[in-house]
């Protein structure tokens, strides 16, 4: 975040403590007033005293002192905060003194902002304005670990350069990041306009909600790194409208260097995700995938999905495709279904005539496992692999 953006955010927050012109939006204003008062309370708890005015004081302490005076001066603020004031901060001047013992000057917002602008490059602590952020931004910051300079970035710089070249040449592609998609070591993503590399994945740990998580070492293309949690990175990528997964290098059509025009055995492996409102499907949407092979266009294949029990009588989205050439499509589809048979979806739905139908091409597997299966087909190792539902990956037999 730039200094200008920080100063604008600070100006907006200070404006909230001015007397309101209207009664509209009071709930939002009250929430921000409480958040600002809690900042002051944390300062008092840390320093054992209320914030003071004075040119020699920390810019945030001066900000808190001005803010406290404004809260004291407004009856509605005092009424709102009185139940929370366990430190007696709203009681009057005896608790707050000027740094030199004299009556404090009342610096205006412009003066404070000017001070901040002059100090914006002094330390990261002031540039990020940690003490004056809203609750929403604080929560977001807690989800994503703090970044720090990457001491051994020279190890990763060639990887970032290679990825950029492969994206330009078409060897790699970018795809939208879907909710809860897998994240593994060695993968690249785009987040906030920067390329992100997952250098390491730590041991599996349990999140507060009982789901599995892991601590990652994530390196960014601007030579910084962080050790955020896997689920935090998933959320950040999904919430970012421009968040993308960078695919692995495209090795070209399977078992052929090129697709000859008219090759009857060419085609596409496609992976679909259902948009069904069925409660079970909705709950496990990120893991339920349909795996198929077609010799035509995938778009034409799924055109009538909402009226076909094979597609769970709902629209679908294409989440991955892989080109084929020189291979028998039906045999390949049967192989993929056999590999993932231990995770076949056990779900029956009623067709348009009310007859129960149990689609057989849907599996409870993460997209990463399907990528792994395609890679094993490419290198010929698929014949010695099996799918382990407990580990959600292919393992050697």
What does this structure look like?
- The structure is a single chain.
- This protein is 35% helix and 19% strand.
- With 397 residues, the chain is α+β, with helices and mostly antiparallel strands.
- The protein has three domains: 3-142, no CATH class; 148-246, SH3 type barrels, CATH 2.30.30.30; 267-396, no CATH class.
- It is elongated.
- Residues 1-5, 15-26, 93-144 and 256-265 have low confidence and may be disordered.
Work out the number of β strands. Answer: 15
User: From the alpha-carbon coordinates, what is the Rg to the nearest angstrom?
Assistant: 29 Å
The residue ranges in which pLDDT falls below 50 over 5 or more consecutive positions are 1-5, 15-26, 93-144, 256-265
Number of domains: 3
Order of strands side by side in the largest beta sheet? 1-6-5-4-3-7-2
Biggest pleated sheet: 7 strands, antiparallel
Q: Assign the structural class, choosing from mainly alpha, mainly beta, alpha/beta, alpha+beta, or little secondary structure.
A: alpha+beta
Average pLDDT: 75
Gap between N and C termini: 50 Å
Helical content, roughly? 25-40%
Q: What fraction of the residues are assigned to beta strands by DSSP?
A: 15-25%
Count of helical regions? 13
Global morphology? elongated
Question: What is the N-to-C order of secondary-structure elements (H for helix, E for strand)?
Answer: HHHHHHHEHEEEEEHEEHEHEHEEEHEE
InterPro entries: Phage_T5_Orf172_DNA-bd (IPR018306)
Domain Bacteriophage T5 Orf172 DNA-binding: 283-377
Pfam families: MUG113 (PF13455)
Protein name: GIY-YIG nuclease family protein
């Amino acid at each position: 975040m730039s200094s200008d953006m920080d100063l604008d955010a600070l100006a907006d927050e200070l404006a909230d403590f001015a007397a309101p012109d209207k009664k509209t939006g009071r709930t939002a204003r009250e929430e921000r007033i409480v958040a600002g008062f809690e900042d002051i309370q944390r300062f008092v708890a840390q320093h054992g005293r209320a914030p003071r005015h004075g040119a020699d004081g920390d810019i945030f302490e001066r900000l808190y002192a001005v803010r406290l005076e404004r809260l004291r001066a407004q009856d509605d603020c005092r009424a709102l905060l009185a139940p929370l004031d366990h430190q007696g901060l709203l009681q009057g001047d005896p608790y707050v003194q000027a740094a030199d013992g004299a009556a404090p000057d009342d610096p205006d917002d412009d003066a404070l902002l000017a001070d901040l602008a002059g100090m914006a490059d002094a330390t990261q602590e002031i540039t990020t304005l940690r003490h004056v952020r809203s609750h929403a931004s604080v929560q977001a910051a807690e989800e994503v670990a703090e970044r720090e300079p990457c001491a051994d970035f020279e190890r990763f710089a060639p990887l970032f350069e290679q990825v950029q070249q492969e994206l330009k040449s078409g060897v790699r592609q970018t795809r939208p990041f879907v909710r809860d998609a897998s994240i593994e070591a060695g993968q690249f993503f785009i987040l906030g306009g920067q390329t992100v590399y997952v250098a390491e994945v730590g041991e599996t740990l349990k999140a507060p909600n009982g789901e599995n998580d892991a601590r990652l070492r994530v390196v960014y293309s601007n030579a910084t790194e962080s050790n955020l949690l896997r689920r935090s990175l998933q959320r950040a990528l999904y919430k970012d409208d421009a968040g993308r997964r960078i695919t692995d290098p495209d090795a070209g059509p399977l078992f052929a260097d090129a697709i000859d025009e008219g090759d009857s055995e060419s085609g596409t492996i496609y992976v679909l995700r259902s948009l069904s409102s069925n409660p079970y499907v909705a709950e496990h949407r990120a893991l339920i995938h349909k795996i198929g092979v077609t010799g035509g266009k995938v778009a034409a294949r799924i055109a009538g999905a909402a009226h076909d029990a094979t597609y769970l009588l709902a629209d679908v989205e294409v989440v991955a495709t892989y080109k084929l050439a020189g291979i028998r499509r039906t045999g390949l589809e049967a192989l993929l279904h056999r590999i993932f048979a231990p995770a076949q979806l056990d779900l029956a739905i009623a067709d348009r005539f009310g007859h129960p139908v149990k689609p057989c091409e849907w599996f409870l597997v993460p997209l990463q496992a399907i990528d792994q299966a395609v890679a094993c087909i490419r290198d010929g190792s698929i014949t010695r692999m099996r799918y382990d539902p407990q580990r959600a990956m292919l393992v050697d037999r």
